[in-house]
Write a structure and sequence with these properties.
Elements (H helix, E strand, L loop, with lengths): L27 H9 L3 H8 L3 H51 L20 H7 L2 H4 L13 E8 L6 E7 L9 E9 L7 E7 L13 E9 L6 E9 L19 H25 L3 H6 L15 H10 L1 H7 L6 E3 L15
Parallel strand pairs: 4-7
Antiparallel strand pairs: 1-2, 2-3, 3-4, 5-6
Protein name: Nucleosome assembly protein
Pfam families: NAP
GO cellular component, one term: nucleus
């Protein structure tokens, strides 16, 4: 990606992530623009075709526009279908949360007093089995995950955005029961690109001395003009998984190129983490917990035996399809996030 990023029609820098569903379809606006904006040289070339051939080309263009109209309709209906099935999945996720947290007892459970409640470390292990999520979890974050009861994602009905909710039991680290992260994604523009409008974190109510995003460093300080020293404490930031819940500002015209590029890199990484949790981890959490799903990785070496390679690929198609990283068509942002982050839920 260009360090400055592409520019949107307003002249503001844009965030570019992977786009499209891989089928190569274009929106009707894109097709129309391409047809109307055909270069003079290309038009001159088509002018040299016989009249009947030109009629056939015009007919093909009309078919292409009809296909684009159908594709637009498909995208609208697919979104409705996704929302419908998300509501059907919800009761299953609620049952999963009950089992993981220990609120639900299984009928076949043996009456053994093993003092094990639910499935300890369920979400921590699921996250740690995905490299992108594991990378942002620090050692000092790990104890907090013992209190993580459930992770949910709720899609917006009015746009392509979504909200993540992390539910915690009472713990010695913060007073919130639910931490949230929300992404506002506008509908696709005329160019076919979705727009990331805003990223909203929440305020964590850290208990005294428990803020994992900060650390206290003791420093010796020498008195002026004397030999005596004293030890003072300084608070400084430290990396933590819980930085994820901070508000993320959108680039604006006020920033210089370097600042804008840094913000776009931060937004890109943040959105990819959020979307991975929303689209990949939550729907198949138990398989990430057990390690039955592995991330798709490109091999550094080519197999000399093409026949064996082809047969192995055919056998593993089903497994690979579940492990592929999902993509979201967020390409550019047009607004500056100036809202105060919402307070996390304290139920």
């Amino acid at each position: 990606m260009d360090p400055q990023g592409p520019m949107n029609p307003t002249g503001e820098p844009s965030i570019e992530l992977d786009a499209g569903d891989g089928r190569g379809f274009q929106s009707i606006d894109q097709v129309t623009a391409q047809i109307e904006g055909t270069s003079i040289d290309a038009q001159n070339e088509t002018e040299n075709f016989p009249p009947n051939v030109k009629l056939r080309i015009d007919a093909l263009k009309e078919l292409q526009q009809e296909q684009a109209q159908l594709e637009d309709q498909f995208e609208k209906e697919r979104r409705i279908l996704e929302l419908k099935y998300e509501k059907l999945y919800t009761p299953l996720y609620e049952k999963r949360a009950g089992i993981v947290s220990g609120r639900t007892k299984m009928d076949a459970e043996q009456s053994v007093d093993d003092n094990v409640v639910g499935i300890p470390g369920f979400w921590l292990r699921a996250f740690m089995n995905h490299s992108a999520i594991a990378e942002i979890i620090e050692d000092h974050d790990v104890p907090v995950f013992a209190y993580l009861m459930d992770v949910r994602s709720i899609s917006h009905e009015e746009d392509n955005g979504f909200r993540l909710e992390f539910e915690f039991s009472s713990n010695p680290y913060f007073g919130n029961n639910v931490l949230t992260k929300e992404y506002d994604v506008a509908d696709a523009t005329d160019s076919g690109d979705a727009v990331l409008k805003n990223v909203k974190g929440c305020t964590i109510d850290w208990k005294e001395g428990k803020d994992l995003t900060k650390r206290v460093k003791k420093v010796k300080q020498r008195a002026k003009g004397g030999k005596s020293t004293r030890v003072i404490s300084r608070t400084e930031g430290q990396e933590s998984f819980f930085d994820f819940f901070q508000n993320v500002s959108m680039p604006s015209e006020d920033e210089d190129d370097q600042e804008s590029a840094a913000l776009m890199d931060q937004l890109t990484t943040d959105f990819q983490i959020g979307f991975t949790i929303h689209e990949t981890i939550i729907p198949q959490a138990v398989l990430w917990f057990t390690g039955e799903i592995e991330e798709e990785q490109e091999s550094e070496y080519e197999d000399d035996n093409d026949d064996d390679s082809d047969s192995e690929e055919a056998e593993s198609d089903d497994e690979d399809s579940t492990a592929q990283k999902e993509k979201h068509p967020v390409l550019e942002n047009k607004t500056n996030a100036t809202e105060k982050p919402p307070e996390c839920k304290n139920q």
